[in-house]
Automatic annotation (TrEMBL):
Pfam families: SnoaL_4. This is Nuclear transport factor 2 family protein. InterPro entries: NTF2-like_dom_sf (IPR032710), SnoaL-like (IPR037401). Residues 12-126 form the SnoaL-like domain.
Length: 138
């Protein structure tokens, strides 16, 4: 299938919106990016579907602030209703004190990520999200 720039933009936007939502504590927006039966391999558990993702994210410490940086993003394969994206994700985190002052940032690691997207109800959604550690935290 011939890829247009607009197709690449639409697919890439799913990845960017996912991590932007995480960093902004917008858990509902993140969950909506999941397909109905989409899976996310997260912290040793498999989350299935938007509700499971929302439930897990609502458990995050609200004092923990993150910045997820995506690099080397590429569309590896694409079909009529599916696509695979690969990228590196570098995560930074900081924890706020009682005054909401952020502590020093810590590099939480670099992960080698794969997102399999599916076209569902006219929107690209995450069918399977997985990653493996590339470089450990500092």
């Amino acid at each position: 299938m011939q890829m247009r720039d607009s197709d690449v933009d639409l697919l890439s936007e799913v990845v960017f919106r996912f991590f932007s939502g995480l960093d902004q504590h917008d858990h509902r927006s993140v969950a909506k990016l999941m397909a109905r039966k989409g899976t996310w391999q997260r912290q040793g558990a498999e989350l299935v579907g938007p509700e499971a993702v929302l439930t897990a994210l609502e458990q995050r410490d609200p004092k923990r602030h993150t910045a997820h940086l995506v690099s080397n993003l590429r569309v590896e394969t694409v079909g009529e209703n599916s696509a695979r994206l690969r990228y590196y994700m570098t995560a930074f985190e900081s924890v706020a004190d009682a005054d909401q002052t952020l502590g020093p940032p810590k590099m939480a690691g670099v992960r080698d990520c794969t997102d399999d997207l599916i076209l569902e109800d006219g929107h690209w959604r995450i069918g399977c999200k997985r990653s493996k550690l590339l470089l450990p935290a500092m």
